[in-house]
Amino acid sequence: MAGAAALLAASLMYPARVFTAVISVATAGVAVTICRRIGEPPLIQVISVVGVVAAAVAIHGTRRTGRNAVAPTLLAQASIPAAAAVAGLSGGLWLIPAGAVVTTCWAWRAEFAVTVVAWRASLRSGIRYVAGYPRPSRADVEMAVENLRVGTEAEVATAKLLVGLGPRWHVLHSRALHATSADADHIVIGPPGVVLVDSKFRSGIFECSWSDGEGAAASWTFNGQPLRADLVRSALFEADRIAWAFRADLASGQPVPTVLAIHGARMNVAWGTAEFEVSETDPRSGEEVVVATRLVTLVAVEHLVDYLRQLPARRFTEPSRAERRCGRARGLSDADVLQVAQDRFIVDLAAVADHLFIPVR
After folding, report:
1. Of 1, 262, 308, 309, whose CA is between 20 and 30 Å from 15?
2. What pTM did the predictor assign?
């Protein structure tokens, strides 16, 4: 009873990793004791200790960190001495059921089903990607509580609107990006490809002085002042991380389009494209040097769905032999078969994106 109370107190007082490390030491000791009692050789005893530690490292170290690690880690570790004590199998045969439990716990924590679906989708549609690790979920810059609240409300409002895109579209909300603590508000996958939508709440007026309607950059002001690159810096960084994860491939190598969904502020157009200069500090002179120009589309949030739907559909892939054969059997035209192939690619692209970009919980 006293021991159970001590474990409960430790779980409440110490971080999960510290608590798990303490339990690992205790579990390893129990495993060695049981192995000695059933006459296991020193090699099997060492394997049991390594198994206890490896279970904790593997389950805590998975890149998909949306599920709690303590419970599956404790279950996986406890299965090692439990299998030895209950099974009573000599020669290390008890490691088989213990290994099955450890693997199951790791697969649950890692959401392995998502990974398998992504692997299959990648192979079927030839989608290349790089799976990286997000940094811990913490802000690089402290933000006022009010700013966080307003930003969250804008994201929720945008998410509700994006539901109206239809079945050919897939939307991932609040996803962690690789090698950064930043997260993407909305990753939209559909006929135009992958589009990053960043929700922005502003008070004032965005004015577009001209637009030719052909996608050319327009001259913009916000409350009478030219737009500053600060408005889009984080969104462009997020778009670059998404492009990196897909090796900037996506059938044509074009960068991920970036869209700002404007909340709160008024706009004199439904949407329009703005050009921003991307600058870096010259290490020699210390001065800001323009290294590129990027296009970003500003959209009044109430017109967001209309804007996304009017984007030109892309031809991602060609029909496979199976799709052509199935199309002929169903009496489909070549255009219909081609559409089936594009829809398949979009579904697979969404599956890979769901694997790459972990939900922020």
Report:
1. 1
2. 0.74
